[in-house]
Records
---
Amino acid sequence: MKVKNGILKGELKVKNGKLIKCTLEIKDGRIKSIKFTGDFFMHPEEKIEELEERLRDIEFDKEKLAKIIFKFFEEVEIIGASREDFVEVIIKAR
Amino acid sequence: MKFRLIIDGYRNAYENMAIDEALLFYGKPTIRFYKWRPSAISIGYFQSICEEVNLEECKKQGVDVVRRITGGGAVYHDEHGEITYSFVCPKNMLPEKILDSYKLICSSIAYGLHFLGLEAKHAGINDIVVNNKKISGSAQTRRHENVLQHGTVLLKVDVRKMFSLLKVGEEKISDKAIKNIEERVTSIEKEIGKVKEEEVIEAIKKGFEEGMGIEFHEEGLTKEEIKLAEKLREKYESKEWNFKR
């Protein structure tokens, strides 16, 4: 969903889980910036910034995004949502 | 298991969050009970302050806003409406799985609430419910091989005030929506009438004693914890931290 100035927003309420929101900018088909917010739990917490950094400059392609996200969650624990939900919320933003 | 018991009374939001982080850093087995003055909103680590909080209204009502070190949702901590606890210990004193340790701590608190006559039980990931209505929420983090879980137990609840401070869609502030929330959230006062705060603390304490086999001794913060908390308070007061997402 487009908000303004090319900023896209997606929201996903996980069934029996938490809420994930995603704000992103796309330039030339690639992610220029991305931010996840919400009431989920991630351990260790500060790793979220690393995920956002890893997704920068990546082509907006579900499989490519999923590959990076799945790899990230090999070493980071998420509670109240799944790794698939993080892919889904990005796709919903568009 | 031997735990320190800190019955800490009122502090402001920044001090409260700084002390919890200092306790987590040193990891001395501790349960701290505390309150918030002025009333405050705490938001989860991953939440956007602008998306969640009506900052203008908070300023008008003299309500502080602070970002927690823990994930989870935005909470309104009313000066007279809740008791907050923090539970700290080394990781190896709790189940390895985070969900299992939520279960153990929340079930012990729920068990404690039974001594007041409340049919409380752990529900979902991090809630305690009475008659299927939420009475307590908690959030956990793990750092430096230690665990911190902090959470609230509602003494009384004012949904209208809570909604005026949090950003919820217009449709959610309708009378019908408020009624809906009132049907999903409860408090000790709503369930069994006014109970003295000391009695609530005593009951929860007993829940931990019998539920987890904890032995308490009352003791204050250590010099090192106080020193670290003073330093951390600056972080919690800073725009950089509170507005980082």
Note: Chain A is about 30% helix and 35% strand.
---
Amino acid sequence: MLRRTLQHTGSIVWLLVLTIQEMGDAIRRGRLPFRTKIFFQQCDRTGVGSVPLVALVSFFIGLTMALLTGYQLRTFGQQRLVPALVGIAFTRELGPLMTGIMLAARIGAAYTAEIGTMKVSDEVEAIEAMGLGPLRFLVSPRLLAVFMLMPCLVIVSDMTAMVGASLISFWAFDIPLRTFFATALDSLLLRDLVAGVLKSFLFGLIIGLVSCYKGLTVQGGAAGVGDATTSSVVASITTVIGMDTLINIMLVALFE
Amino acid sequence: MKPEDSAPVERPLVELRDISLAFGEKEILKNVSLVAGRRERIVLLGQSGGGKSTILRLILGILPPTGGTVKFNGADVTRMRRRRLNKMRQKIGMVYQYSALISSLSVRDNLALPLEELTDKTRAEIDELVQMKLEMVGMADARDKMPSELSGGMRKRIGLARGIMMDPELILYDEPSAGLDPVISAVIDELIIELSEKIGATSIIVTHELESAFKIATRVAMLYKGEIIAEGTPEEIRSSEDPVVAQFISGSTQGPILETSK
């Protein structure tokens, strides 16, 4: 088990190195490191297409969080702490984490299934046989799309969560909207924002790499694609949560 | 450096020397040697799952052999780095059994892909070339269709057109007429002969369809249990007295082929 995990990790890092090399080759030949059309298609799917889901889920989580913590804090008369709590929790932790989990399921699965199907129908090999470099063609546009758009989605998630939290705070705890946002902004430190953004870039990279790797290593027809998709989602989510914990421990150890 | 490099004799385009290939315990190929000269059409015959298609992947450098050397134009494929390998692959056209067209791209984009990516041709030049190759395979009307809208035979012809987009020196065919009706497969056979004559390319064709094999080939090699057991002109193979070859050609159930696999 450990050995297999290490093998996969090694192969995934290697995939990143090879992809960067192939992109470098393209740049050296005076071409773009990815096909623009595929890149924009993927950006549209990954970024714009994920906004409704990310916004909706974050809105409800923000709302629930404010409601539940508010009720607990009210017993001590401290419900004014709700904006700071939701603000910090989302920018630093829940925004990147929830968006990571949602994207692993929504986009990681799609990437794996797509590349996996191309692999079993020999399309990947055909691209390789033409001397085109399948990584530049298949992996780089997807990887870049999820890497660059993940932070944008995290910001959408943070904002909608705050909207959800502010509405419920106004309704249940009589905190005016203006006060809510002012307190939330006051309590946020630059450190929290930077930590959130850095995490989101990293999670984007993990989801992109794991899902493309799982797609490229599919074996054995339709059932193989199914298995790979499941395992891609499981692996992306576990890795995202694992990395999140690791980063939190490191940040606390270094800065608190 | 070696004397043969400077020799004026035309060197063979593809040379496989003592190739062996094993996946773990399972031996796929044993000491396979095969030489393809320019403009030859070599048919590789053999049982299904016998490693014929694997030989094509070895030539493309997609699979490395366990032992032996693969040479293309005198250069050792097994030692090539990625960039040289990609350069070499541009001179080879591969036609897949199930066409392997990129399903998200239209026929035009599928054919234009290698030209857009690997050459500096303008859009107009590319369109003209795409039209020309489509006409060569008799599929000029399919230009704006998606691969999913085409039948198996049509897709195969588009696959053929894609294989010759870069005017390759070598065309590899993996089961070009498998699963097609007799008329379409005869059309494909004629196309293979026509293309190899028109663009002067060498062809290596993997098949187990005897009728096509004998029609297309200038030379036939028979692969059995990972080894090449017979090689010669179609007539020589047809009249071979080797029991395995004779059984394969007659399609008889009596003989060494089934006995040894039991």
Note: The longest strand of chain B covers residues 26-36.
